[in-house]
């Protein structure tokens, strides 16, 4: 589809490495990488290996519910990272795309008063993003087909109520 950005697994390997090279060339040495689940998990893993950072954390944020369909505002889902784990750290927030930037802003703001420094790295940034990320592989205004989400799930998750 011409109206979409197509990211393949091979191209993602290139993107992850080139993002890491931007971070290294800038002299930023993160103490930890905070991935925004789910798409940011792939980016954080690639950056973690390329930057030799083993301390990876996850923040679950729900915002998108479908192609160009989103909630009114992003919502942090448990478990929420502990302030103690982030205290005084240089944090690199990793995500797949800065679309509106609302999710990145939520995570960056969550970190800002707990950490020494926070910077953002994304594979793609769109012009409308309210967060201008420090590290961006590509800029686009198109919808992006990511290799991890372009195919439908092989099974549907049915949330179940856990006994307390």
UniProtKB/TrEMBL annotation:
SUPFAM superfamilies: PRTase-like
Phosphoribosyltransferase domain segment(s): 11-150
Record key words, sorted: Glycosyltransferase, Transferase
InterPro entries for the chain: PRTase-like (IPR029057), PRTase_dom (IPR000836)
CDD domains: PRTases_typeI
GO MF entry, a single one: xanthine phosphoribosyltransferase activity
Class of the enzyme per the UniProt entry, highest EC level: transferase
Protein name (database record): Xanthine phosphoribosyltransferase
Gene that this sequence comes from: gpt
């Amino acid at each position: 589809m011409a109206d979409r950005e197509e990211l393949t697994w091979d191209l993602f390997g290139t993107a992850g490495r080139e993002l890491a090279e931007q971070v290294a060339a800038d002299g930023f040495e993160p103490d930890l990488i905070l991935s925004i689940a789910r798409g940011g998990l792939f980016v954080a893993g690639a950056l973690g290996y390329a930057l030799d950072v083993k301390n990876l954390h996850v923040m679950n944020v729900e915002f998108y519910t479908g192609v160009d369909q989103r909630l009114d505002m992003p919502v942090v889902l448990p478990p929420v990272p502990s302030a103690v784990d982030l205290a005084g750290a240089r944090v690199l927030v990793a995500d797949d795309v800065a679309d509106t930037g609302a999710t990145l802003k939520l995570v960056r703001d969550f970190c800002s008063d707990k950490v020494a420094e926070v910077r953002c790295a994304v594979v793609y940034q769109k012009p409308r993003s309210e967060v201008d990320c420090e590290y961006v592989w590509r800029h686009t205004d198109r919808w992006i087909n990511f290799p991890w989400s372009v195919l439908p799930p092989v099974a549907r998750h049915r949330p179940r109520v856990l006994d307390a």
